Amino acid sequence: MLVIRPLQSDDLEDLYAMAQKAGKGLTTLPADRELLQRKIDRARESFNQRCAPEAALYLFALEDIQARKTVGISGIEARVGLEEVFYNYRLSVTVNASKELGVHVRTPTLNLSNDMTDTTEICSLLLS
C-alpha cells in the first residue's frame, strides 16, 4: 500500500538514492545529502508553520508501507523568485506569411520569461 505524507529526516537515504538515479536532470533534487537534509528541514519548518508563508516549501514522500521505503517525492514551493531569480519559458508561435510569395510558416518559439515570479510551483516530482 502506498501513502503520501510529509517528508521526514528518516527519508534522507531513500531520497538520496532516488536523486542519484535521477542524475543531473532533476536540478531541484541533486545527489547531495547536506542539501537534501536542508530541504527536509525547511519542509518540516513549513509544515510546522515556523516560517513566513511565502517562504514555505512543502515536500511529500510517497511511502511503500509494506517495504517501509520512500519510493517517490513531490513538492509545493509557496512562492518562486522572491529570494533568487526564477526564469521560465513561454511557448509562442511566430508566423511568417506572404500571399504574394505563397509562404506561410509557423515557427514554435521559446521565450525566456520571469512571468511566473511570485507564483506557487509544483516541484521535485520523482518516482523510483
From TrEMBL:
Keywords: Acyltransferase, Arginine metabolism, Transferase. The keyword Endoplasmic reticulum does not apply. GO terms for biological process: L-arginine catabolic process. The keyword Ubl conjugation does not apply. It holds the Pfam family AstA. One of its GO terms (molecular function) is arginine N-succinyltransferase activity. PANTHER family: ARGININE N-SUCCINYLTRANSFERASE, N-SUCCINYLARGININE DIHYDROLASE. This is Arginine N-succinyltransferase. It comes from Marinobacter nauticus (Marinobacter hydrocarbonoclasticus).
